[in-house]
Amino acid sequence: MIVNTAEKLKKLYEIDDHLWLEETIKLLKEKKFNQLDLENLIEELESLSRRDKLALQSLLEQIIRHLLLIQYWEDERETNYRHWQSEVISFRGQINQRMTTNFYHYLAENIPFIYTQARKYVKAKSGIDTFPSECPYNLDQLLDEDWFPLV
Asked: Which residues, in sequence order, are CB contacts of 70 under 8 Å at separation 6+?
């Protein structure tokens, strides 16, 4: 399909967003910038950025959850330590594969919010309330594949 105007591309977006994406990529490769549907292209790029940030935020929350369980849930530590540790290793690997300077700064700025969410989860899961009100870990510790809190 050849789309020759931005207006036709806008209409295509409403009908078949995957085909719209293919056409947009083709136009970009051919440097036909005047034919781009900039409004929807910007919207898609913003959505992609949000999706990536939320994925990394979710991984970091999982790391924090499991570190809190390791450090504070003494009654379950002996039984679950290896599982929690392996989860942290897995989540760190996933997050570090995607890490960029921009994502690092985003996560650093959002640790208080991410920690609050993780703390709520582990409090409900464990039934204990001895978790610190502020994150006891810094971002470098959270991302360091070899670091675990002392227990």
From this structure: 77, 81, 84, 85, 88, 148, 149, 151
pTM above 0.70, yes or no: yes
Ramachandran area for residue 29 (φ above 0: left; ψ -120 to 50: alpha; else beta):
alpha
Q: CA 4, CA 27: separation in Å to the nearest integer? A: 9
Comparing CA positions, the residue from 77, 86, 57, 60 lying closest to residue 126 is: 77
Domain-by-domain residue ranges, the chain? 6-36, 50-143
Q: What is the DSSP letter of 104?
A: H
| The residue to which tokens 């009100």 are assigned | 133
Tokens of 40: 């929807």
**Which tens digits make up the pLDDT trace of 87-124?**
999 999 999 999 999 999 999 999 999 999 999 999 99
